[in-house]
Amino acid sequence: MIRIDSVTKRYPDGTVAVDRLSLEIPDRSITVLVGPSGCGKTTTLRMINRMVEPSEGTILLDGKDITQQPVNTLRRSMGYVIQNAGLFQHRTIVDNIATVPRMLGWGKEKARARARELMERVGLDATLAKRYPYQLSGGQQQRVGVARALAADPPVLLMDEPFSAVDPVVRKGLQEELLRIQDELGKTIVFVTHDIDEAVKIGTMVAVMRTGGKLAQFAPPAELLSHPADEFVEDFLGADRGIRRLSFFPSAGLELLTAPIVAIDSTAEQITARDTAGAPYLLVTDLEGRPLGWGEPDRLTAGDIRAEHLLSHGRPFVAGTDSLRAALDCAVLSPTGWAVAVDAEGRAAGVVSQQTIAEAIRGAHAEGREAEQATRATQVTKAVG
Ligand SMILES: Nc1ncnc2c1ncn2[C@@H]1O[C@H](COP(=O)(O)OP(=O)(O)OP(=O)(O)O)[C@@H](O)[C@H]1O
């Protein structure tokens, strides 16, 4: 939908911020521009809505050169969200969000009704409508920024480090919210960040840029992590690239053991009769099946299941839904070295050892290599053919 074609931006002082950049930004997906400070991310984003004009090259929107339409028409088709939200301090939240519809000539009530609808969509309580920006937390202000950008329902959303100024927990919430909104609305989003974790989490495609405004790699996150194009990208991805990559492997294939799970009302006899399938501890659950903690079999067989004697089971992972990274994290953080899997309702679905998870990781890597070899073989066949 947006095609950046060999675009260069040279500022009047001679700085080359973007150097012959070409990118095809796919429709209805999130494309992330990531890279070190000063590599030209913001300049690229601002060239898309013509806040900055390219020195060379063209940008096409739906096949049409963006310079061929009035700049206001172009900007109306592109919501813009910046760090710290950039809200109008003297306007209420509802009126901030209603700004663009009002500019487009909507009546006050219709624009406010739309604003209220968007507040709900971005997870803002309706009671905040009449407040002013300074009466909101940083995270809430960012949500208002997103709602305001969405108000006129533009097909494109440009986001420049929108979540950088909030703490990691709020940031995670905002990222999840954005993914949910994207699922519902299917916008074409171009998102600038310098945080590779954020890029990998939300990007459908990730463009890694290097200093001097050149493209280093353009790939889906999983491919970026498995095949960094060069040393620069590899360094930028960081030392724990392998662990991050596990986020893309599902936990669905993990073999979960249910034998070491016992309910808190089990009798000593029931526990003794149990084959724990090699697990050093038993996972005790409440009567609804929700995990309470790990117990030493000796203590439990003495018929002494008391919650205060149990070791913490840590944070469980959701069987099938969560990734192998989440499963491994649970196992590593668990005092027993075993991870607890739960179902969507939080009931224990099984337990799994670090060793089993490690085997699953090796299996996933092997599958990845096989798939790659198959792709290469097809390419070779095609080339030869
Ligand atoms: N108006 C300007 N005049 C001159 N040089 C500029 C101007 N705006 C940006 N630059 C320079 O262009 C380069 C790219 O800047 P840009 O803001 O696009 O980078 P960025 O990747 O978004 O950086 P950051 O992550 O720090 O926000 C930098 O060297 C910057 O100093």
Describe it.
The protein has about 375 residues and is α/β, with parallel strands linked by helices. It folds into two domains: about 1-250, P-loop containing nucleotide triphosphate hydrolases (Rossmann fold); about 260-360, CBS-domain (Roll). It has 15 helices and 16 strands. The protein has helices spanning about 40-50, 70-75, 95, 100-105, 110-120, 140-150, 170-185, 195-200, 220-225, 230-235, 240-245, 270, 295-300, 325-335, 355-385; strands spanning about 1-10, 15-25, 30-35, 55-60, 65, 80, 155-160, 190-195, 205-210, 215-220, 260-265, 280-285, 290-295, 315-320, 340, 350-355. It has a six-stranded mixed sheet, with helices on both faces. A hairpin with a 3-residue loop joins strand 9 (about 205-210) and strand 10 (about 215-220). Helix 5 crosses helix 6 (about 140-150) and helix 14 (about 325-335) packs antiparallel against helix 15. It is globular. The two termini are about 35 Å apart. The model has no long low-confidence stretch (mean pLDDT about 90). Bound molecules: adenosine-5'-triphosphate (ATP). Adenosine-5'-triphosphate binds near residues 17, 35, 37, 40 and 43. InterPro entries: AAA+_ATPase (IPR003593), ABC_transporter-like_ATP-bd (IPR003439), ABC_transporter-like_CS (IPR017871), CBS_dom_sf (IPR046342), P-loop_NTPase (IPR027417). This is ABC transporter ATP-binding protein. GO terms for molecular function: ATP binding.
